[in-house]
# Entry
Amino acid sequence: MVSGDRVSVIMPVYNAAAWMRRGIDSVLQQSHADLELVAIDDGSQDESLAILQAYARADARVRIHQQIANGGVAAARNAGIAAASGDYIAFLDADDWWHTSKLEQQLASMRASGALVSYAGYWRVAEDGRVLSRVMPPSHVSWRDMLASNFIGTLTGMYARRLGDVPFRAVGHEDYVFWLEQVRRAGGAVRVDTAEPLAWYLVRERSLSANKLRAARWQWTIYRDVEKLGLLYSTLCMCRYVWHALAKRRRAS
# Structure
């Protein structure tokens, strides 16, 4: 094991008792064992906290941070980042899960390339277990590439702590805004070079991202109000965004 490769995995948890064990197990069973799971209970009203406490008693790598009240995923992730002690930060929502060698392969890829931000392919799966699609993003992306589409699935994204932490903002597409900034700061990001995806993303029926019109409005707001792009460039980026969204839809069908 290479010194300085401790990974902090940030997991927001809110009423996730029905499915969170699979995600937690996928973290604790990683072949790269130098990690901590920073679980943020975001005011859950089910058995989520009790489940986390049981895991913490069984494995000292599990650390629990309790939010006073439900503040949303952005605030939960920010609390997790603030509490993290690792050299790298990775994210996993409570309903998603990883391949057992995900962190090992990702760290090796970052060491080999010198990248400060990396990501991987992933499977989209339905609640009944059906595989909906395979998402394999480009081998590398720049900030300008990211303006066309969010190529980094947060369940696969990881950054080196020496890049610096940035907060998640409570806006639509907060994941996208976060990775836009980190890729800009890092000068680019690379995909883990594997033949198969390294994670599974659960597509829930009531997913916020399912509303396409709302997502488009969020995207426009990001271009104009967050990235401060001019009207012409924002329009060009929006056209690219729509093209990529349609291409993703065709590949998934």
Q: What stands out?
A: The first strand starts at residue 7 and ends at 13. Residues 92 and 155 are 5 Å apart (CA to CA). The chain has two domains: 7-206, 211-253. The first helix runs from residue 20 to 28.
